[in-house]
Amino acid sequence: MPEETPVLAAENVTKHFDTGTQTVRALENVTLRLYRGRIAALVGESGSGKTTLARLLAQFYPVTSGEIKLRGQTVSRADKAFYGEVQLVFQDPFASLNSLRKVEHNVRRALKLHGHESGDDQVHELLGKVNLTPAAEFARKLPHELSGGQRQRVAIARALAVRPAVLLGDEPISMLDVSIRLDVLNLLARLREEEGLALLYITHDIASARYLSDDIYVMYAGQMVEGGPAESVIQEPKHPYTRLLIDSSPDPERAGGSSAFTATAKLGEPPSLVDPPPGCRFHPRCPFAMDKCKTDFPPRTEFSDGSWTNCWLHEEA
Amino acid sequence: MILDVKGLNVDYISAAGAVRAVNDVSFQLRRGEILGVAGESGCGKSTLIMGLIRLLRPPAAITGGEVWLHPREGRPVDIARRTDKELRKLRWRSIAVVLQSAMDALNPVARLSAQFADVLREHGYRNVEERTAELLEMVGISPDRARSYPHEMSGGMRQRAMIALALACDPEIVVMDEPTTAVDVVMQRQILAQILELRQKLGFSVVFVTHDLSLLVELADRIAIMYGGRIVELGEAAEIYRSPKHPYTKGLRDSFPPLHAPVTRLSGIPGTPPDLRNLPHGCAFEPRCPSRFDECAQRRPELLDVGDGLAACHLHDRERTAHA
């Protein structure tokens, strides 16, 4: 990953939610950095803390400890200037647009709120940027007249209206039809190149993370366990959890042998975050777990291919 | 063969007229086979299987066709024409269902044991507790969890309990509607491994509906691809993946980025799935098809044998004429 200052970063952040009777340890000492013109994918199972991390990055709620930094400066509270730089795209494009207002209203509102010129030209230019052409025609439609993919593109256009430096996408394609998902992924890739956006792509689909992103981060039960260039992480996973995720993902190339389905058949489930296992939280499911894994979270080991992992297996070597 | 579906039509009936969601669908399910049904939202795949088990609710209704069940014992039965009372005897014993959301399908205020007991008693089982324990163990749930309520279990465990419940009366066919869509990939693989293992042991057939073709290629023996309410291709799973005969199948296959093969730029399928209220006159896929020609807009292609399977596409007429 590059040496320059990240546009947006979570540095060593921890987030605990207090429910009154118990504490949910959602994130522990997690670091993630987003760079200009790069896409970082964040993968892991539900409950691993992906969305919590995105919400901390977006300043939806405060960190328990650690820092969120925008261009190297610690952000203490979210204001309009912060949201002028950091925008979110959500999973459900049916819920994220104002369904009573036309597309142009949805987009124009973001322009207005952030003090940009908000004429038809500006609205149409934004719709053009996300391939909703003819823009004038789409501008006059209501959200329910659009398909899921078109709606998600309106949501992206609205985020772009603010002229952000960072776009945080929380499962932006998982509710879309299979045949139009690539369309949205290709659009995000183009925005990275043309607008130099820093993008966070949260997904549980590791194949799409590989397709779209430059870097992949892997989380398990609130801990960041591995990260690095996408190809290194996918082709040579260092952490046993990353390996499990990749082996579990559908891979048609494997078709014909059912052996792939039995290899991981009885490996349990992620732990409760109210009372997580000590040490590495993956140790109860890990086929390589050692005594040390049950008491101490491993330090980071870095590899020559640019990737790193927190796993005692590699610290030994 | 255990199930023989012939020309099944399912309509959603409204004041403005009927919308045909499943249109002239025919296929055969073999004994012990896993038949995958893939397609995008609105292609009719869920409506099709709800039709197979006669769980359609108004305004949906079967308006034509036959669904012949050939049970181990007794004479063939046309499910499409049985009364609800007659169907009660077939359900669970001959044909069972696993739905997408176990949270919605299980009774939230009853313990698992009570829900298993309901099914088992209705179908004449005496050793209810033993059978419940046996079924839960079969899907890797500890029998002492029988006292749990659904909300006390994880999503994956609920889904496995649903599968155990479907297998309660040793059915010959299990119909599954996106049974793993709501769970994570690791749990998905555990569940699929279990389905394969149980099929091996118990010998039931499966109709498995999903939008995830890449998963189906690994799991199914044969795959049917649906588009606009019709089956547009049907063939061996490996063949569907390696050499799809219908351009829609090919587009769908190429919509899944590879996990290990070199990454190339993929484009998905342009356009959006068709509106069933207003289907094109010719092939329903014609407006989005990269290989379309004049004929496609004029005449709807029939589902025909193309050598390694069935496909409904005029490209194969051309080949046929060229060979003739």
Automatic annotation (TrEMBL), chain A:
Signal peptide as annotated in the record: none
Record InterPro entries: AAA+_ATPase, ABC_transporter-like_ATP-bd, ABC_transporter-like_CS, Oligopep_ABC_C, P-loop_NTPase
One BP annotation, GO: peptide transport
Keywords assigned by UniProt, alphabetized: ATP-binding, Nucleotide-binding, Transport
Boundaries of every ABC transporter domain copy: 8-246
Gene3D superfamilies: P-loop containing nucleotide triphosphate hydrolases
Pfam families: ABC_tran, oligo_HPY
UniProt GO molecular function: ATP binding; ATP hydrolysis activity
SMART domains in alphabetical order: AAA (SM00382)
PANTHER family, alphabetized: ABC-TYPE DIPEPTIDE/OLIGOPEPTIDE TRANSPORT SYSTEM, ATPASE COMPONENT (PTHR43230), ABC-TYPE DIPEPTIDE_OLIGOPEPTIDE TRANSPORT SYSTEM, ATPASE COMPONENT (PTHR43230:SF3)
NCBIfam families per record: oligo_HPY (TIGR01727)
Protein name: Peptide/nickel transport system ATP-binding protein
Organism, as annotated: Nonomuraea soli
From TrEMBL, chain B:
ABC transporter domain boundaries: 5-253
CDD domains on file: ABC_NikE_OppD_transporters (cd03257)
Pfam families given in the database record: ABC_tran (PF00005), oligo_HPY (PF08352)
GO BP term (any one): peptide transport
Keywords: ATP-binding, Nucleotide-binding, Transport
MF-aspect GO terms: ATP binding; ATP hydrolysis activity
Annotated NCBIfam families: oligo_HPY (TIGR01727)
Protein family membership: Belongs to the ABC transporter superfamily.
PANTHER family: MALTOSE ABC TRANSPORTER, ATP-BINDING PROTEIN, OLIGOPEPTIDE/DIPEPTIDE ABC TRANSPORTER, ATPASE SUBUNIT
Name under which the protein is recorded: Peptide/nickel transport system ATP-binding protein
Organism from which the protein derives: Nonomuraea soli
Organism classification: Bacteria, Bacillati, Actinomycetota, Actinomycetes, Streptosporangiales
